[in-house]
Write a structure and sequence with these properties.
Number of helices: 22
Protein name: TBC1 domain family member 12
CATH class of the largest domain: Mainly Alpha
Radius of gyration: 35 Å
Strand content: under 5%
CATH architecture of the largest domain: Orthogonal Bundle
Strand order of the largest sheet: 1-2
Number of strands: 4
Distance between the termini: 117 Å
GO molecular function, one term: GTPase activator activity
Organism: Tyto alba
Largest sheet: 2 strands, antiparallel
InterPro entries: Rab-GAP-TBC_dom, Rab-GAP_TBC_sf, Rab_GAP_TBC_domain
GO biological process, one term: vesicle-mediated transport
Length: about 450
């Protein structure tokens, strides 16, 4: 019973040495004090007959500008008391190894510091350019939009990227409002969407309304809910509970009421989200509806196979013209443009590229129209041409479906600039028009009336 009590009395107070440690609990303190390193050195010299000459003071560790972290510096420490001290040669070798490690660490630190400074300089320069460009856009271009939008100076400034503060305004003006939608009209369709959401379960027995079945409309509503949660998930602003969730839901819901013939198609949420980030709610809806009414977007979102094939054919004309090696490589695997272009066009690259880079693509798309969407696709292929030439069908499809995240605007836009949208002196619009003409003539030749 008194076992622990007796042990407690027998233990000497630990005044001279601190207790050691083991895996479970403390070990008893050592009664013998650890010897000083000088005493150990003297004993070793007396036993071996060797004399240790310390390295010159200039080589000793003092006032070192850079001290490596972790265990790097342990190489300079003396050995434990129960081992022989280092010899002169070993100490000098360790000193040299340590100095080399410090030198390498310094080089890395200096290199990283230079890299950080370069990034900061580029960032400051970019911010200065944006600030000066903003003044030009606000004071000169926007007040005289119709007269200046097509000038060479504005087009060059446009290519460099729009300042975020005027981006939404410029997009609205460039996209236009051919549909003559007003904020009041948006409110009407939004209220209809809200009524539909409320009576969602009650309308299952209703007949077709406006040529669209209830089942199709319900499918659109369900798809909207599902797609919103998958829209820019890394931003956490469009997901449920986020500040823009209800706003995005409203714009998409109102559009399904405004265009029941189109309804909601997967990918629309990304386009609407980008517009919401740059415009007020009603303005975002107006731009969204007009943007989706453009021939290219309407063909893709209505899944007009005939028109989509014409766009793919036009794309391949310029693909072969600009990147003949890669074009033949894709042909050898029967890799058609629809495998990678559909996702790019459906979301206007907002899902495939980093958001800031996608906005720059949108800038020039608003300036040049649908042609720039396909030119951007060719720019991406040019940027990764060397990598893609080494891949097979599966790896190419996977790579183009999920592009590298480290893609930069400078590299991509330099590749886009190198793409020539001209084939046999024909521009994109002329090539596409000739394909449409050939298609119409083919339809006439194969019509039942001509056969009879």
């Amino acid at each position: 019973r008194n076992f622990f009590a007796k042990r407690t009395k027998e233990l000497k107070p630990a005044v001279q040495s601190a207790p050691g440690w083991k895996l479970f609990g403390k070990v008893p303190p050592r009664e013998n004090l650890p010897k000083d390193s000088k005493i150990i050195q003297q004993e070793y010299e007396a036993r071996t007959g060797r004399m240790y000459k310390p390295p010159p003071s200039s080589a000793r560790r003092k006032n070192i500008e850079f001290e490596p972290l972790s265990t790097t510096a342990l190489i300079l420490e003396d050995r434990p008391a129960n081992l022989p001290a280092k010899s002169v040669e070993e100490a000098l070798r360790h000193r040299q190894e340590y100095d080399e490690m410090v030198a390498e660490a310094k080089k890395r630190e200096i290199k990283e510091a230079h890299k950080r400074k370069k990034i900061m300089r580029e960032r400051f320069k970019q911010e200065e350019n944006i600030a000066s460009a903003m003044v030009i856009w606000v004071n000169e271009i926007l007040p005289n939009w119709e007269g200046m939008r097509a000038t060479r100076r504005v087009r060059e400034l446009w290519w460099q990227g729009l300042p975020p503060s005027v981006r939404g305004k410029v997009w609205s003006l460039a996209v236009g409002n051919e549909l003559n939608i007003t904020p009041e009209l948006y409110e009407i369709f939004l209220s209809r969407a809200k009524e539909r959401w409320k009576s969602f379960s009650e309308t299952s027995s209703e007949n077709d309304i406006e040529g669209v079945s209830v089942a199709d409309r319900e499918a659109s509503l369900e798809l909207i809910k599902l797609d919103i949660s998958r829209t820019f998930p890394s931003l956490y602003i469009f997901q449920k509970g986020g500040p823009y969730h209800d706003l995005l839901h409203s714009v998409l819901g109102a559009y399904t009421c405004y265009r029941p013939d189109v309804g909601y198609v997967q990918g629309m949420s990304f386009i609407a989200a980008v517009l919401i980030l740059n415009l007020e709610e009603a303005d975002a809806f107006i731009a969204f509806a007009n943007l989706l009414n453009k021939p290219c977007q309407l063909a893709f979102f209505r899944v007009d196979h005939s028109m989509m094939l014409k766009y793919f054919a036009a794309f391949e004309v310029f693909f072969e013209e600009n990147l003949p090696k890669l074009f033949l490589h894709f042909k050898s695997y029967s890799l058609t443009p629809d495998i990678y272009l559909i996702d790019w066009i459906f979301t206007l690259y907002s899902k495939s590229l980093p958001l800031d880079l996608a906005c720059r693509v949108w800038d020039v798309f608003c300036r040049d129209g649908e042609e720039f969407l396909f030119r951007t696709g060719l720019g991406i292929l040019r940027l990764y041409e060397d990598i893609l030439l080494q891949m097979d069908f599966i790896h190419i499809a996977q790579f183009l479906t999920k592009l590298p995240e480290d893609i930069t605007s400078e590299k991509l836009f330099s590749c886009i600039a190198a793409i020539q949208m001209q084939n046999s002196n024909k521009k994109w619009a002329q090539v596409f028009a000739s394909l449409m003409k050939d298609n119409k003539e083919g339809d006439k030749n194969h019509s039942p009336a001509l056969k009879s």
